[in-house]
Give the backbone structure.
Amino acid sequence: RKEVEQDPGPFNVPEGATVAFNCTYSNSASQSFFWYRQDCRKEPKLLMSVYSSGNEDGRFTAQLNRASQYISLLIRDSKLSDSATYLCAVNSPGAGNNRKLIWGLGTSLAVNP
Amino acid sequence: GAGVSQSPRYKVAKRGQDVALRCDPISGHVSLFWYQQALGQGPEFLTYFQNEAQLDKSGLPSDRFFAERPEGSVSTLKIQRTQQEDSAVYLCASSLEGRPQEKLFFGSGTQLSVL
């Protein structure tokens, strides 16, 4: 089992739809969780950090479920500009470096007019 | 600078050639990371610096890969005797202090193609 797993998609949704992605992680000691967005041939950019209590930023909501070891990202009222690959990243404590991030493969989202 | 700068943007190398990839992090950022991203994959951790100290190099795939950050700012990733499997985008990222919850700022990457 990979340390961080995501459904690669692609997810094809119409504008205005609500879409949700999950990401599972295997290391129960992980403490830091992130969603990054990556556009084609571009670098990843932080979308949201994920906090234990869950957090929301406009149309985006992130949740953490420690018991089941997954994080989720919900996008409401999706826009054409949301089309991108969404990467989850989880820190991998151990060997004295808790800043090392393990990444999922990414979930591809296409929002259609 | 305004962001993380990487050069060259593209590099084509013949198999067996040595290459050097440069990363100029955001000024004042303590932590610097190198990641390798193959097509259709997520980034894979290579190595981590805190100032000039290389604290973790567990992700370097072989002893052909070497990274340095001698003055705690600019970093160079060197790949000796390149192989076709080294073809990937090499991403550099920096963060201000290196706390686990800190945002990483990525450069645009160097796309390496080994022929």
Observations:
- The first strand of chain A starts at residue 4 and ends at 6.
- The interface with chain B takes residues 4, 31-32, 42-46, 49, 87, 89, 91, 95-106 of chain A (CB under 8 Å).
- DSSP finds no helices and eleven strands in chain A.
